[in-house]
Amino acid sequence: xxxxxxxxxxxxxxxxxxxxxxxxxxxxxxxxxxxxxxxxxxxxxxxxxxxxxxxxxxxxxxxxxxxxxxxxxxxxxxxxxxxxxxxxxxxxxxxxxxxxxxxxxxxxxxxxxxxxxxxxxxxxxxxxxxxxxxxxxxxxxxxxxxxxxxxxxxxxxxxxxxxxxxxxxxxxxxxxxxxxxxxxxxxxxxxxxxxxxxxxxxxxxxxxxxxxxxxxxxxxxxxxxxxxxxxxxxxxxxxxxxxxxxxxxxxxxxxxxxxxxxxxxxxxxxxxxxxxxxxxxxxxxxxxxxxxxxxxxxxxxxxxxxxxxxxxxxxxxxxxxxxxxxxxxxxxxxxxxxxxxxxxxxxxxxxxxxxxxxxxxxxxxxxxxxxxxxxxxxxxxxxxxxxxxxxxxxxxxxxxxxxxxxxxxxxxxxxxxxxxxxxxxxxxxxxxxxxxxxxxxxxxxxxxxxxxxxxxxxx
Length: 459
Prior knowledge:
The chain is an all-alpha fold. Helices cover 78% and strands 1% of the residues.
């Protein structure tokens, strides 16, 4: 009887343990773990010390939670929801995207009728504007994951993608003067209009005090801009003083050599900025507060921002081809000089991303990022994009040089001096911004009445 009673007791214990095991998935993680420890104590031989219980840390639960979040994000339904949310944020959330249909309209008008080049140019110009602004938005989202220094560099790089694409298309069609004037206009627009509007808007929002930015980084950028003026000045002076050793060839050779030197200087500047002297480019202010603000500003993920950058860049490149093809016809139908279209109209559209970003950061009192966008963009165009176009033209067989003509070179030189004087104190206010905007209006009026010597066959 005692043996049968023991067998019944053992079978009941086994059944109870099976029920406990079956109920474990429904129990909480901690309860199941505690029951597992009790079973280990029961299973250990008598007199032998039980193994020490394993303590659960908060990191274990965080790890499990992160794995669950990853598993949930990899689900097909979650990916579709994430993609639809990204499309809603990037495409439908911005009011400026009501201008997006003008891009397809420009393409349709180009193929339906070849006589309305003015309308094709205007529609392409309007259609590129929201794309450039959204390109700046995607870059800002990516900058939230990379930090302010790399973020400013990315914003300047992808903000200049529009100008670079337009320049390559124009260079392929042999429109060297359009390339030179559009890149020059982009520098002038960034340094005077974009920076001026940013200083003006930031000064109005923070009217009770002057805004402060990193003076050391501004001085380095001013020096690079003066070096770019040096590279552009000597081919022009060589041409207009008729002191070339070989007429028509020496300035091209000098331009190609100077472009290679400027590319080396820009690569050294990137190493200086991102590696050896990163502390010089750290923003002024509370870094923890800036980090919290960046966390709040994240609306799309890092990979979504990268995907949108590629999509928007491809669409901008398509529209840029139609825009370049319609420049000459637009000049004749709208009765505007090609120089005015290239120096003023094209850069305003191409700099839409920098314009919006610089003003937004200035109003948030992030002047260092504003300078990284505006002055950094001008530095990148003068020290990288222009020499890069000279090298690309060299490969294409186009004699693209750094002789931007005397009028354009003098305008750039005076602009760099004015901006350098504005930045030397390390402070900004609305009055400095207003002066820069007024200087840009004078430059725009000058190019409106300026006749390009190459257009009339003069030297």
